[in-house]
Specification:
There is one protein chain. With 175 residues, the chain is an alpha+beta fold. It has one domain: Mago nashi protein (2-Layer Sandwich), CATH 3.30.1560. It has a seven-stranded mixed β-sheet with strand order 4-3-2-1-6-7-5, covered by helices on one side. Strand 1 and strand 2 form a beta hairpin. Helix 2 runs antiparallel to helix 3. The protein is globular.
Length: 175
């Protein structure tokens, strides 16, 4: 009995001291109302895996057209690869990002958000981080959510096209 009292006292002490400890979080969410940054333009898109064979990777595009692809799972090229964007596709992507419609996109299209009325299970999630004109916009899109804006799906496809991710996902260029 004495052991149980000591254990429960220790747990209470740990719980109380943990509440006072500073919280350090690497991941923070910034709404599209934007946070000033020093970069003029950069874009990062990550796709998570699923229980099946969904490609899991991150692709980053810099203003100068440099692409960095990091293959995580179910891709032909694991690890870090670099390349250049497809110039015409990159121009279309930049025009899409400059449109006023970008501001209409919500921060989250996930099963626990109001923007996802119905969600299928076991689907990947796409996370976008777009920095342009010293403003940062983050969007999280669970691919199982129905009724997401077509612009969001077009944007994700345009990023893959501009970065030419197919060369690392499938191992061959798709024209």
């Amino acid at each position: 009995m004495q052991l149980m009292q000591r254990l429960s006292s220790g747990l209470v002490f740990l719980a109380l001291t943990a509440c006072n400890a500073p919280v350090h979080s690497e991941q923070r969410t910034v709404t599209s109302s934007a946070t000033p940054t020093s970069a003029h333009f950069s874009l990062t898109m990550s796709r998570s895996g699923c229980f099946g064979r969904c490609p899991s990777y991150e692709v980053a595009i810099q203003e100068n057209g440099t692409v960095q692809f990091t293959g995580v799972r179910d891709v032909a090229k694991l690890g870090v690869s670099t390349g250049q964007v497809d110039a015409p596709a990159y121009a279309r992507l930049r025009n899409m990002l400059a449109s006023q419609a970008m501001s209409s996109l919500a921060e989250r299209y996930t099963p626990d958000s109001a923007k996802c009325r119905f969600a299928a299970t076991d689907q990947p999630t796409v996370r976008l981080k777009i920095t342009q004109n010293q403003l940062e916009q983050r969007i999280e899109h669970y691919l199982g959510c129905e009724d997401v804006p077509a612009l969001l799906e077009q944007l994700e496809s345009a990023i893959d096209a501009a970065a030419r991710t197919d060369r690392w996902i499938t191992g061959r260029e798709i024209q």
